Amino acid sequence: RLRSARHALGRLSPLVAGSDSYGLIEIGIDGLQARSGSERDIAAIALRAVGVHLRERPSAAVSSSRLLAVLLARGGGDDVQVVPPGEEAEALAGYPVEALALGATEYAAESMSDALERCALLGLRTVGALARTQAAALAARVGPIAGALLTLARGFDHVRWYRSQGVAASGETCVQYLVFQADDVLRLGARLKQNPPIRPAD
After folding, report:
1. How would residue 170 be classed by pLDDT, with cut points 50, 70 and 90?
2. Which of 38, 63, 77, 165 could be joined to 83 by an S-S link, Cβ 3.0–4.6 Å?
3. How many Å apart are CA 30 and CA 39, to the nearest integer?
C-alpha cells in the first residue's frame, strides 16, 4: 500500500521517499507552490492522492525540518500543520529528547540510545534543553554524535534529507558559530566581531 501511495505522490513531486518501518512518506515541495498553491494546499493534495491507497487516514505536516514534520504528522489530526521557516527549534523544544532518534536514522540504534541516555543523565530531557547546550560541552559528554543531535534539536536537518534523496546538497558553518554565544562576545569583545554575528543561545 505504501508503494502505491509513493507512486501516486510521484505525480506531485519528484522527491518522494518513504520508510515502511515507520509508515512514513516524505515529499519535497520546494518549487511546487507556483503550480499547486500554498504549502497547506500542497499537503491537502498529497493527502487526497495517498488517501485512496492507505487503510488508515493519513496525516501531514510541513516544515523545513524533516524531524519536526515527522513528529507533527505522527501526532495525527485533521488539520495540516505548517511550521514557518525559523520557528522549527521553538516547535521542537517541548518534545522529549528521545524523539531525536527518529531524525538520526543513519546512526546505529545502540549509539543513539547511549547518547540519549547520557543526555537524560545530564538533565537534558527535552529537545529544547538539548538545543540550548553548547556544542563543545555536549560533545565532551556524549561524543561525536553531539553534532547530529544539536543539528536536529535546532531544526536544521533539511540538508541531510536532500542528500538522502540523491541531491548534491551541502551545508556549512564555522566553528565559532557552534562554540560561541552572544554573551561570549561581551566577554571577548572585538575578537568575535564578524558577519553574520554570533547569535544568542536560544
Report:
1. low
2. 63
3. 9
